[in-house]
Every structure is written in C-alpha cells, then in structure tokens.
Design a protein that fits this description.
8-stranded mixed beta sheet, 2 domains, alpha+beta, 8 strands, 37% strand, 115 residues, 1 helix, OB fold (Dihydrolipoamide Acetyltransferase, E2P)
Amino acid sequence: MKKSKRIALLAFFGILFITISSFAAMLIWPRVSFEGSIVSVSDGLLMIEVIDSHIENGLYFVPVDDDTVIKDSSSNIITLGDISVGTQVKITFDGYIYESSPGRVRKCYKIRIMD
C-alpha cells in the first residue's frame, strides 16, 4: 500500500474515532445544576443571578421550552407563568454554558422552586 493511502486511511479512522467519541460524550454528559434568584421572566427565557455556586457568580440566561419541567417546592408541576422575580430556584441543565455576556445555558431540563 502506498504511503499516501496509508496516511489517508489513518486520517479517516482518526476523524471517525473523534466524531464517535464526541457523539458518545454528548449522550452520556452528566446533568449539572446551580441555584440562584430569578431576576427577570420573559417568554421562554429566565435571567438568573447566581451567588455562591460551583459555577461563576453572575447573571445567566436560562431558556425554557416545552421539554423543561418546572416544579414547585412540593414537587407539583407548574408553568413558567407561576414563577416570579425574586424566587429562589435550582436549575438542572446539560452542563453547557455559552460564553456570552451574560452567560446562556444551552439546554435546561428542570427548574425547581426552592423553599
């Protein structure tokens, strides 16, 4: 086999391995959470202020879609309209935060009202 064919084959399998590894990591990526206080509520978007968390303190946009589960402190399902500014919440998300100002959570799975 010619050297150029070997290099091309090696590059192909290298790219294939990286692609499959990245896809597998997305499927098993752990869900993470943080707590904060709601600063604003708009259609499909919350702004949360985070203080004393494992993520950097500051403001974060949290998108809320039809797949986001919202529960009150008694674990009853509620809607985005039931949430008000100043409410303490726990946000469970996919672990990705876009580096923008303010930061933006990529996918929010659950919002839980804290006591």
